[in-house]
TrEMBL record:
Residues the record marks as active site: 193, 332
Subcellular location field: Cytoplasm
Catalytic activity field: alpha-D-glucose = beta-D-glucose
Organism: Aporhodopirellula rubra
Pathway named in the protein's UniProt entry: Carbohydrate metabolism; hexose metabolism
Entry EC no(s): 5.1.3.3
Family, similarity comment: Belongs to the aldose epimerase family.
Name of the protein: Aldose 1-epimerase
Gene Ontology MF term list: aldose 1-epimerase activity; carbohydrate binding
Keywords, ordered alphabetically: Carbohydrate metabolism, Cytoplasm, Isomerase, Phosphoprotein, Signal
Length: 367
């Protein structure tokens, strides 16, 4: 059930830059794979490197299993990948972008890495996707991972204790529970960065997948993909996924926001109803070719719908197929990007004594 993922690790380590956050010794001894399996044969494999989901075997309409999560074959490839796509990882301390890598909190200005043009992305140079997590417990259908980010790690204030629990239910749901506490006020925005291709990883683009997003508004961005602060209606725009439509239908439309994102790479404002923190429907994705359906629910207020615009066809995936441009999509449930600098967005600040709790459910079915 628990296997070492070290085979090619040590050899490739020589080319790994120091900023990956993993030493040769850790790489050789501490990286594990753990497979969750339910009574229907669905399987989800997780590594403690970055709390990454490395594969998800789910059934199509005829009951055939395929791996619907993009990923690399070895830990070394996760570390060395030139495109840094964040395949399958837990992203933090702050998922998505913070403008110019700076924010002010309680009168103090903090400076973060600018690892995405002028901006900070996905927690910095060594975000939570590039560290080794502790496996606190693991069973056939659940794994509980923890990580303690130090005060000023990647520039963020506060020692932050984070946990992520993946639970695979017999209803074919992968439940992701996040929790965190801190000893100083700090921004926290954790998300899961799996790229899905419901036809199976490496099987072409996702442009034919049909998507419904439960969101009447999205947050338009500037040229650095930082929200302008506006919550804009999706009505009569290519961003309207309130009724299911294929990803490809409008993606090449002439539109300023699509041009800035090089496709869809935006945060949608989820329709939350009365309670802002209850688990509500975020998205439904259907692949007409295989019948697979992914339904995403979350306690978060937003979802970054990203259509693999930065995949260039140069990465080779687990089964030896290359990942084409738009060969996967992400549904990164989250608070809105750049929240620490946007007073009108829901707050991402966690104070000492408070508990950060967030849940996202990825449910699989077929029709
Ligand atoms: C997120 C971002 C994208 C891109 C990917 C990783 O989805 O919004 O712009 O950085 O992560 O490639």
């Amino acid at each position: 059930m628990t296997k070492l993922l070290t085979l090619t690790f040590t050899a490739i380590f020589m080319t790994v830059p120091a900023s990956t956050g993993v030493t040769a010794e850790e790489a050789a001894t501490s990286t594990r794979l753990h497979t969750l399996k339910n009574s229907n044969g669905m399987e989800v494999t997780v590594t403690n490197y970055g709390a990454i989901i490395t594969s998800m075997l789910t059934a199509d309409r005829d009951g055939n299993l395929a791996d619907v999560a993009l990923g690399h074959r070895t830990a070394a490839e996760y570390i060395a990948a030139s495109e840094k796509p964040y395949f399958g990882a837990v992203v933090g301390r702050f998922g998505n972008r913070i403008a110019e890598g700076t924010f002010t909190l309680d009168g103090e200005t903090y400076t973060l890495a600018t690892n995405n043009g002028d901006n900070h992305l996905h927690g910095g140079n060594v975000g939570f996707d590039k560290v080794i997590w502790d496996v606190k417990s693991a069973s056939d259908q659940s794994i509980h991972l923890t990580y303690v980010a130090k005060d000023m790690e990647e520039g963020y204030p506060g020692n932050l204790s984070v946990s992520v629990t993946y639970t695979l239910t017999d209803e074919n749901q992968l439940v992701v529970d996040y929790a965190a506490t801190t000893d100083k006020a700090t921004p926290v925005n954790l998300t899961q960065h799996t790229y899905f291709n419901l036809a199976g990883e490496g099987n072409g683009t996702v442009l034919d997948h049909e998507v419904m997003l439960n969101a009447d508004r999205f947050t338009p961005v500037d040229s650095g993909l930082i929200p302008t602060g506006e919550l804009r209606s999706v009505k009569d725009t290519p961003f309207d996924f309130t009724s299911p439509k294929s990803i490809g239908r409008d993606i090449e439309t002439e539109n300023e926001q699509l041009a800035l994102g090089k496709g869809y790479d935006h945060n949608w404002v989820l329709n939350k109803g009365v309670s802002a923190t209850e688990l509500t429907l975020a998205a439904v994705v259907y692949d007409p070719a295989t019948g697979r359906v992914l339904t995403v629910s979350t306690t978060e207020p937003g979802v970054q719908f990203y259509t693999g615009n930065f995949l260039t066809g140069t990465l080779t995936g687990k089964s030896g197929k290359t990942y084409s441009h738009r060969g996967g999509f992400c549904l990164e449930t989250q608070h809105f990007p750049d929240s620490p600098n946007q007073p009108d967005f829901p707050s991402t600040i966690l104070a000492p004594g408070e508990k950060y709790e967030s849940q996202t459910v990825f449910a699989f079915s077929a029709r």
